[in-house]
Amino acid sequence: MGLPAGKHHWSRAAATGLAALALCTAAGPSRAAGDWPDRPVRMIVPFAAGGATDVIARALSQRLGTLWNQPVVVENRSGAGGMVGAEIVAKSPADGYTLLMASGSMFTVNPHIYKNLSYRAKDFSMITKVATGPMVVVVNPSVPARNMAELIAYAKTRPNQLNFGSAGIGSQVHMAGEALADKAGIELVHVPYKGEALAYADLMAGHVQLAVGNIAGVTPLIANGKVRALAVTSQQRSPMLPDVPTSSESGMPGFEMVGWFALMAPAGTSPQLITRMHRDIALALADESTKAVLSAQGMNATVTTSAQLSEAISAESETWSKVVARRHLQAN
After folding, report:
1. How many Cβ atoms are within 10 Å of 105's Cβ, its own excluded?
2. How many CA atoms lie within 13 A of 207 on its CB side?
3. Which of these, 78, 166, 296, 297, is most buried using a 10 Å CB contact count?
4. What does the pLDDT look like over 256-268, one tens digit per residue?
C-alpha cells in the first residue's frame, strides 16, 4: 500500500533537500579550494615600488598568475613601517583573494617599537617564506671609509653626525642599521623614508651617508659607482657581489644580517586553501625563471612550512626586543 499523496510529496522533497544539504556539507571546503581562484588575486606590498619586497612580489606574482590562470595584481600600500598594508590584509575576507608580501621586520620588530600596532601575527594565516638574502653596508663616496673597520673608527669620532637611511621605521633596512650601530658601539642618526628607493636616492645625493640595504636594491648603485659597498652581511660572499667582502672579512666579525620575505593570508583562511597556496608557491619558486629573477636580485628562493615561519618569527622577535631596548627605539 502506498503512502497518501500529501505525505509522498513531502517525503520526496525532504529526501531531495537532505541529499543536497549532505552534498554541500561534504563538498563545501574542498570545492571552495578547488574553485579558487575564479577572479584576480591581490598581493599587497606594504612598501613603495622599487624596493626588495616589491621586486620579489612581482617576480612571484607573474608565475603564480600562470599557475592560477588568473592575474595576481601587486598593490603597493606603503606607510608606517608596513602597518598600512598589513592592516588592509588583516581586515580583508579570509577567502584567498588578498595576500600580504611581508618583510620579516614587520612581525619581529614592529611589535616592540609601535605602542599602537594595528596588527599582530595572530591576524594572519602563515603560508611560507619565499626569499632570503643578505644585506649590504653601503656609503656615499664622500665617506672616506673603505672597509667596516674604517667606518667604525670614522663614526666613533663623529657621534650622531652620520645619517643612515631606511625604508621606514621598523623596516629591515632600519633595523639592520640599528643592529650595526649596536654591535659596533657607534651612534648614528636614523632617517626614515617611505621606501628603499627613496632612501637610496638621498644616499646617492649625500643627504644620508650610509645604509644597510637589501642586496636587490643597492647592487645597481654599486655597479655604477653611485655608492661604495663595504661588506655583505652573510657568512659567505654573495655571488652577486663576489668582490665585496663579508662583514667579518671587512673588520666587523660576527655581524650577520639576513633579510627574509614571506607570504601570508588573513587569519581564518581555510587550511585547504593554505595548503593549495603553499603547494603552488613552492612550484613557482622551483621554476627556473623565478629562481633566475630572485638570483639576479641576490636572493635565494626559500620555502618553509607554516609552522616553521611562525617559529622563526617567535625566535627573531625575542632577539630584536633586546636590540630595541638597548637602542631605545620607539615609533609612536
Report:
1. 26
2. 11
3. 166
4. 988 899 999 999 9
CA gap 314, 110 in Å, rounded: 13
**Grid cell locating 318:** 625575542
Half-sphere exposure of 260 (CA within 13 A, CB side): 18
Residue 148: partners with Cβ closer than 8 Å, 6 or more residues away: 137, 230, 231, 247, 250, 251, 252, 255
b/e code 296-309 from CB counts within 10 Å (16+ = b): ebbbebbbbebeeb
Amino acid at 58: R
- The DSSP line for 274-330 is HHHHHHHHHHHHHSHHHHHHHHHTT-EE----HHHHHHHHHHHHHHHHHHHHHHT--
Give the model's pLDDT for residue 25.
Answer: 38
Cβ(306)–Cβ(285) below 8 Å? no
Separation of alpha carbons 252 and 187, rounded Å? 16
The phi and psi torsions of 314 (rounded to 5 degrees) equal: -65, -45
* Strand residues in 88-176 grouped as ranges (E): 98-103, 124-139, 163-166
Which of 50, 233, 60, 48 lies closest to 131, judged by CA?
Answer: 60
* Residues 301-329 pLDDT 10s: 999 999 999 999 999 999 999 999 999 88
Three cell numbers, residue 278: 603553499
Q: List, run by run, the mean pLDDT of 10-residue segments along the chain (332 residues).
A: 38 42 39 78 90 87 95 91 91 97 92 90 97 94 96 97 90 90 95 88 96 87 94 92 94 90 97 97 94 85 95 93 91 74
Q: Which three cell numbers stand for residue 218?
A: 643597492
Q: How far apart are CA 175 and CA 104, in angstroms?
A: 11
Beta bridge pairs of residue 265: 125
The pLDDT tens digits of the residues spanning 192-232 come to 988 788 999 999 999 999 999 988 788 889 989 999 999 99
